[in-house]
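residues and backbone:
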Amino acid sequence: MAKINKTNAARLLDRAGIAYELVPYEVDEEHLAATHVAEQLGEDIRQVFKTLVLRGDRRGIFVCVVPGDGEVDLKKAARVSGNKSAEMLHMKELLPATGYIRGGCSPIGMKKPLPTYIHESAAGFDHIYVSAGVRGLQLKLAPADLVRFCGATLCDLL
């Protein structure tokens, strides 16, 4: 088996003493969607979460982590984050704002801590998957550990 290189997100979890598993998958540049990741992992799409970065009109950039088959409700996201409105961050702003690229954006280890909101359905699973910070690698961890590490809020975002 090929050696899996640890990402910054994995090293941060190591330092915090949080248990996780690095799970590789085959990247398809044409299909970066979470549905593809879930298929590759053979996992329930509801347990494979995607990390979305948004900009609010009042409080700036924030993060929403939602099930792979879900679409974030911008009104709900704005409300929970203390904004009147919110929109997805433009692709060209993603790397400078977070240090991550599309398809490899992790809620862990962004350039600076951002307010993070995780869909409440995560709490119903013993483990979920989020990006490890690069395309082709997921972190499998307990949702409570992710919430605690990110200082996140569990809420309805769909």
